[in-house]
Amino acid sequence: MSEGVRINKYLAECGLCSRREADKLIAEGRVIINGKTAQPGDRVTEGDAVSADGRELKAVTEKVVLAYYKPAGQTVTESDPHAEDTVADAVDYPVRVTYAGRLDKDSEGLLLLTNDGDLINAMMRGRAGHEKEYIVKLNKEPVPEDIEKLSRGVWIEELKKKTKPCRIEKISSRSVRMVITEGLNRQIRRMWRLAGYHVNALKRIRVVTVSLGDLKPGEYTELEPGQMKELYSAVGLKL
Fold first, then answer.
1. Is residue 32 packed enough to be buried (19+ CB in 10 Å), middle (13-18) or exposed (0-12)?
2. I need a labelling partner for 111 at 20 to 30 A (CA). Which of 66, 118, 157, 234 fits?
3. Domain 5-56 classified CATH 3.30.450.20?
4. CB atoms within 10 A of CB 41
């Protein structure tokens, strides 16, 4: 690290956050390098003392990815003091990890946690089209016309966006399997509400190449080297 790395990349390598979130921390004056407030574009070299919000940071040498089964009712946050049950509190792991993508409080299923900010950044780029797969339980049986309409994409007024085309497969009278390639706020619930349905339960069973498998609510497992390699390759990164 003779020429050093940009401070936002260094924060990501420490597993603190994505580069975009790092830029925000720097702009807010919350990052210190050798006793001075960091500026955008500053570089960190070996031996520099770096801290964020008063906590000393060290670059991570070994990358870790956890597959975690988030239970319904648990909040995906690290900064809400009013949340009673959070992922950060539930996952007791010796290396600091944070979430790559969100899952709303009422939903359950697979959440990936990692100490690699570059992986977080790569997975959260909506334009990259990384797949996420869900099982959706509805309050009534969906008709083919509504499935076709939602599959093509619909305009969500609250978000001022049209959803990208997705795959929807009916798997029982009131349940469907959905594969989407973006992560708009409460996207699946909003889509079905537009078509006149209520989502009774929502479970994410796959993120890119990683599946929920046999995990039970509240359990997590480390990805094996082969799984890590497959995931990194799928999002365009080298492990």
1. middle
2. 157
3. no
4. 9
Contacts of 91 (CB under 8 A, 6+ apart): 66, 68, 97, 113, 220
Round to whole Å and give the CA distance between 168 and 156: 18
Per the residue annotation, which of 23, 53, 80, 104 is the catalytic one? Answer: 104
**Phi (first) and psi of residue 19, to 5 degrees:** -65, -40
| Stated pTM of the model | 0.76
The CATH architecture assigned to 65-126+209-234 reads: 2-Layer Sandwich (3.30)
b/e code 208-222 from CB counts within 10 Å (16+ = b): bbbebeeeeeeebee
Of the options 3.30.70.100, 2.60.120.620, 3.40.50.10580, 3.30.70.1560, the CATH number for the domain spanning 131-207: 3.30.70.1560
- Write down the domain spans for the chain: 5-56, 65-126+209-234, 131-207
Establish whether 80 is a catalytic residue.
no
